[in-house]
Design brief:
The complex is a heterodimer of chains A (286) and B (311). With 286 residues, chain A is an all-alpha fold. Chain A is built from 13 helices and no strands. In chain A, helix 5 crosses helix 7. The longest helix of chain A is centred in the first third of the chain and has 39 residues. Helix content of chain B is 78%, strand content 0%. In chain B, helix 12 packs antiparallel against helix 13. The relative contact order of chain B is 0.11. Classes of the chains: A mainly alpha (286), B mainly alpha (311). The interface between A and B is large, with 100 and 102 residues.
């Protein structure tokens, strides 16, 4: 009896210490985001003042920074550009990835295994290795400082990854399904649309989410390729144009950064499980 | 008796059908051609926008500043003898290994902690942690930039309240390096946590039950079951993160722009500063190519690890 009680006590103590660890990490992860939000609702006077507690809004909240963001800056231009480029880049990349993943996982041809490995390797090539030659190449097409140039370079980061995870999802589809479709006289395109895409829908959603998030978050390519406001996207636009002029711009800057984060975060909140399955599939399936 | 015969019948007929379909398909459909056609857009993309640029970058790195003459390895030689660039190499290595070490450690602790919770509670914590990873890094780094602001912001205020002297976060080389690493750990830990958590879930529960019967302590279970089972995924995730950390651009660009006095530059940011901002494309290309060896080594081991985990 005594032994049972001490055992239960110990288990409860364990659980408490686990919650303490997790809460510390949760504070660490959420602190920057909540502090950004708090700052964006503070008046300039409060941000400027050296009195008071930085974590609290003590002199009244204001929407002034958000109003200024939409009315006085190019934020909405950036937003429109980002949405256009991210959506189109996602569509283009997904078309290329789906076709290739289907071809590589099911219509095995000579060397398709080696090619799948090659794709995995290109997925490891980082943007910071490619941006200088791509800058020259984009320049030679006279596409410098045009947002559509981003449609050319974004897929380099997205397609290898999406193809790689889609190969994993497609390979997991049972052969019998494919054969049943063949017996019914389906051709390869019908099979792709009627069998593979519906069955691998979770993988498809995960890959699309990644494509969209990566395009939305891309920072180096717009920094290198685009330099005027009317062609700029959110990441580079917020970082390079909202930081300027007066010293106490923090409220506006935080408002801009948070608003710019919103679309990927909203998608994430609703589709978290797809993110996680795609993330773990990226490194383990193949 | 009847049942066993049925069993044999149903066993055999799908095999016959499979064989029939396989043969019919092999005869009728020109599979390889369709497969290659479907991969063509991918080939164009990879060759035109990844492989060709890579070799073009090597070519570019061998030109003079105005790209009018071929100078061979002069740029590489110049960089190796240049103090600032040596600092960039040293800083990149310190940044990468410190950040990867802490990301892996924190990710592991967090994964173990979350895995020990009741199943229903796990989802919400996993979700909270991953938000840091979903936000565009350049924008969340702006938030950190504000946190590190020395006079009006939260961090130094907190230090003063705790009786610690405030720090010049982004203007002192040591603290600036610390800050860039901290932001990278903040951003990257959730990725490790998710990978480790998925791997923890794949360990068969009976191992732990057997260990419990044998009276193993918590530490023994960790040492003899969890770690060996997770070895491969830990290695893959760390190598993978080594590549992305080494090639990072956003954090340093937003937080310090490489300063103070070029003390926090990574290859990516330094290459951007020389190549795009300074207009010396060949030198910028040469800087970025220095990343290649460590990337190639990591990629080699990742590939080996992934192959092993499939088998």
């Amino acid at each position: 009896m005594n032994w049972m009680q001490s055992r239960r006590m110990r288990r409860r103590l364990n659980l408490v210490s686990i919650y303490v660890i997790i809460c510390l990490f949760a504070i660490f992860f959420l602190f920057p985001i909540s502090y950004m939000a708090i700052t964006s609702f503070k008046t300039n006077q409060e941000i400027e003042s050296l009195k008071g507690i930085p974590f609290l809004i003590q002199r009244g909240a204001t929407l002034e920074h958000y109003r200024d963001l939409f009315q006085k800056t190019d934020f909405l231009v950036y937003f429109k550009n980002t949405a256009q480029v991210a959506i189109l880049a996602t569509i283009i990349s997904m078309c290329i990835s789906i076709l290739a993943a289907y071809g590589l996982s099911r219509l095995a041809f000579f060397g398709s295994g080696a090619i799948a490995t090659g794709i995995f390797l290109t997925y490891l090539v980082p943007e910071s290795l490619l941006f200088i030659p791509l800058f020259k190449i984009v320049g030679s097409f006279s596409l410098l400082n045009k947002k559509w140039a981003l449609l050319l370079v974004f897929p380099t980061a997205i397609v290898p990854f999406c193809t790689w995870i889609l190969i994993g999802y497609f390979s997991a589809i049972p052969r019998q399904l494919e054969e049943a479709a063949l017996v019914d006289g389906a051709n390869y395109l019908q099979m792709l649309f009627r069998v593979f895409l519906p069955v691998a829908l979770p993988g498809l959603v995960a890959a699309t989410l990644f494509a969209f998030t990566l395009s939305w978050a891309s920072f180096l390519y717009p920094m290198a390729l685009i330099y005027t406001s009317n062609e700029q996207v959110l990441t580079a636009g917020v970082v390079s144009t909202l930081i300027r002029g007066d010293v106490y711009h923090w409220g506006g800057l935080m408002a801009g950064a948070l608003m710019a984060c919103l679309p990927p975060v909203i998608f994430y909140v609703f589709l978290m499980d797809y993110y996680i399955s795609g993330l773990t599939a990226g490194a383990t399936k193949g | 008796m009847g049942t066993s015969q049925d069993f044999v019948e149903t066993e055999r007929s799908p095999q016959m059908r499979d064989w029939f379909i396989e043969t019919a398909r092999a005869i009728i459909r020109p599979k390889p051609l369709t497969g290659i056609l479907m991969c063509l857009p991918l080939f164009f993309l990879i060759i035109g926008l990844i492989v060709y640029p890579f070799f073009y970058s090597i070519y570019l790195s061998m030109l003079n500043k105005r790209e009018t003459a071929f100078v061979g390895l002069e740029n590489l030689g110049f960089l190796l003898g240049y103090d600032t660039f040596r600092l960039v190499i040293r800083n990149s290595v310190v940044f990468t290994f410190t950040a990867v070490f802490f990301k892996a450690s924190f990710g592991f602790i967090l994964a173990l902690a979350i895995n020990a919770l009741p199943i229903r509670g796990q989802r919400i914590w996993r979700g909270i942690a991953l938000i840091a990873w979903v936000m565009p890094l350049s924008l969340s780094t702006l938030g950190w930039w504000w946190i590190f602001e020395p006079t009006h912001s939260a961090l130094n205020w907190l230090l003063v309240q705790l009786g610690i002297s405030p720090k010049p976060w982004l203007s002192d080389p040591f603290w600036a390096r610390f800050a860039t690493i901290l932001v990278n750990v903040w951003f990257g830990t959730p990725f490790f946590m998710i990978m480790f958590l998925a791997a923890l879930k794949s360990i068969p529960q009976m191992f732990y039950e057997a260990a419990a019967i044998d009276g193993a302590t918590g530490f023994q279970r960790l040492h003899y079951i969890t770690l060996p089972m997770l070895k491969n995924i830990i290695a893959i995730t760390m190598l993978f993160s080594t590549i992305t950390t080494f090639a990072n651009f956003d954090i340093v660009r937003v937080l310090t722009r490489g300063g103070p006095r070029d003390a926090t530059h990574l290859f990516g940011t330094y290459s951007f500063q020389l190549g795009i901002q300074g207009g010396d494309i060949p030198l910028g290309a040469a800087v970025s190519l220095f990343m290649f060896p460590i990337l190639a080594v990591s990629a080699f081991f990742i590939l080996r690890g992934v192959r092993r985990s499939i088998q």
